[in-house]
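Hey, resending since the last one bounced:
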Amino acid sequence: MSKQKQGQYRNPEAILDINECPTFPHLVGLSIQHMFAMFGSTVLVPILVGLNPGIALFSSGVGTLLYILITKAKIPAYMGSSFTFIVPMMALMKTTGYEGIAQGTISVGVVYLIVALIISQLGSDWLDRILPPVVVGPIIMVIGLSLAGTAAKDATMRTVGSQSVYDLKYFAIALITLLITIVFNMYLKGFVSLIPILLGLITGYIVALFLGVVDLSGVTHAHWLIAPSFEIPFVSYHLHLSWGAILSMMPLAFVTMTEHTGHIMVLNTLTHRNFFKEPGLHRTLSGDGVASIVAGFIGGPPVTSYGENIGVLAVTKVHSVYVLMGAAVSAIIFSFIGKLSTLIESIPSPVIGGISFLLFGTIAANGLRILIDEHVDFNQKRNLMIAASILVIGIGNASLNLGDLSFSGLAVATVLGIILNLVLPQKALSER
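The structure tokens again:
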């Protein structure tokens, strides 16, 4: 079924190890399976924000290929749309639009490259110092909980003219979508258990279709093959730097860096290798950064490594980078299928709302899990002060406005959390 290059370590637990390539029929099947496991989350981010899903698919595929190239084809990782930046991207879409999101996305990639350069010279211990669990956990919780209102609005409110009105039918569709996705999560086995979000979207879409909520007119008139409409900053728009957009997204790069580092740790265990040493953390961060810069230049959201990818690798025991490259090429091909992109855009808001109930809650729960797994002690005043400040400022979206510059509550909370962690003593005077 495959070949392994001589002299290379082979993981005995893998059906296909990192450098093993399956025969062509198996490669096609495994690649499409892997792509669909990433598909639901990759297109959900642009749907929520209002970006083009086709562009997100395209940038996901191109970003994955670039990542594999930069990491010397030694890490089986897939790049998908990042959920971390949903809050600032939603705000920017209402103000600066594509231009601001693109500049923010490019700035995120630049931060990655700067940190990668520092790590290549100094190592990575300092990253743990500024982003311990007491900072990262609450920030991830904020990302999920600050979006709760958006999910509720999508699930219950129908737009009539310029007004939003409560619609019980919408809420019913949202609840059905939520419950069926929970059922898929709990009771499915094998490969289909890895794509409950995608299956939930499809089921909710069918329910909405029967209830007359879906508008298919756009799908009928769409072409089968169409080039994605790239929104290229500084070309599609006049050259104008949006510092508010850049500074609202840039600090969150440190959050996704932490997630990325965690993914690499899990991949180390799964593949019985040490990717921090070879090809090195500076290369993994560089690959992620370059992928986001390219995504920004074509109008896509920031991309990052995906936890779903690790799930597929663990269940199938197929770790081949050739399969990952095949999945990336499949995503690029799908982005040129016009009817598919239009079909995705026709998904009604209550279906998105139902999925978002679970998705945003899961993000928040993952932040809580970090605090529990790392045994963060909230009897210590220091930890309580840091977490409390991040949670309320972030969830309440206490934005900072300085003239033309605007920083989202999430960005303010992230920076404040890092500063408090660096300056507060380990124990308050009353605890000594």
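The chain has one domain: 22-151+223-346+362-421.

Sorry for the duplicate.
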